[in-house]
Specification:
By secondary structure, the protein is mostly beta strands. It is about 10% helix and about 70% strand. The strands form 2 sheets. A 12-stranded antiparallel β-barrel has the order 1-2-3-4-5-6-7-8-9-10-11-14. A two-stranded antiparallel ribbon has the order 12-13. It is flat and about 85 Å long. The two termini are about 40 Å apart.
């Protein structure tokens, strides 16, 4: 299967989830469907002797009806730093300083996910399907497409607390920056999810989610995605949110590293080393709710 075909299939699946699934899934007698939207924005900048910029953005559109639920998430984090190289020309008593500034990215992670849930009865059982895309070149991959379908149960679902779990089969296609010899780009797997949210007070909410992915073709290829967040409402439409996200990949992708000889001279070629297994993101953001 070529990558262009997989990419086209992923886009088609996302569009289907976005426009078709919510309409097809609605009961003719149950037309009520409530939509919500929230946007998180985080920005940090420093200037002067040191210069850096961090930008984070996340948007979520969700809809819920009597038997259907739909969610679309888009987001990303980008961090960059500016470095200034200074060179003095002349004598110790009379010289001119020349400055050259360069900018380097220090972090970059983007994602898009869509999911559709349908209730299977009055006991909080549900079936779901979803598709997603992610890019994290610093972790060693340009594109990771994933497709999932499965079943779950909402164990607690009341006005203050939501606790639910689900499990499903997956198919993932990953395009690495430095392809690993012998590793297939596409593979089937199993994913388990846990989601918990609770209103701690009238204005404070705690939420956490954990996703575990297992590659069934290579069980050493195991991944975790954990998110924990606390939101404090300022007004009806604004909130401050502190979140921590941890990514774990037991078999990380490879990164290219320039090779030098013992005299510290460049050889002109690269070698590959595994990326770090853990990625951590701590974000303080302003949330706009509609």
């Amino acid at each position: 299967m070529s990558f262009s075909i997989v990419r086209s299939s992923a886009i088609s699946a996302l569009l289907t989830l976005l426009f078709v699934a919510p309409l097809q899934g609605q009961d003719p007698d149950a037309t009520e469907f409530t939509w919500k939207n929230s946007t998180e924005f985080a920005f940090v900048t420093a200037s002067g002797n040191a210069s850096s910029t961090t930008l984070g953005l996340r948007a979520e559109l969700s809809g819920e009806g009597p038997v259907n639920a739909f969610k679309l998430e888009l987001g990303g984090i980008r961090a960059s730093s500016k470095f200034t190289d200074r060179v003095a020309t002349g004598t110790e008593a009379d010289f001119v300083v020349t400055e050259t500034t360069r900018e380097e990215k220090s972090a970059e992670n983007y994602f898009a996910r869509a999911r559709y849930d349908r209730s299977l009865g009055e006991n909080n059982f549900f079936a779901f399907t979803g598709a997603g895309w992610e890019r994290n070149t610093f972790a060693g991959f340009n594109d990771r497409f994933s497709f999932v379908a499965g079943v779950g149960d909402a164990w607690i679902n009341d006005d203050r607390t939501l606790f639910r779990t689900d499990i499903g089969g997956t198919y993932t296609v990953q395009k690495d920056v430095e392809p690993t010899p012998g590793r297939e780009e596409g593979f089937g797997g199993l994913r388990a999810n846990l989601e918990f949210t609770r209103d701690l007070t009238a204005t404070t909410e705690f939420a956490t989610a954990l996703a575990a992915d297992e590659n069934l073709a290579d069980t050493e290829d195991f991944r975790l995605d954990w998110l924990a967040a606390i939101s404090v409402s300022i007004t009806e439409g604004l909130a401050l949110k502190t979140s921590y996200r941890m990514l774990f990949d037991n078999q990380p992708a490879l990164l290219g590293v320039p090779l030098f000889d013992p005299a510290d001279n460049p050889v002109g070629t690269d070698v590959t080393v595994p990326a770090e297994k853990f990625d951590n993101f701590l974000t303080l953001s302003l949330v706009i709710k509609i």
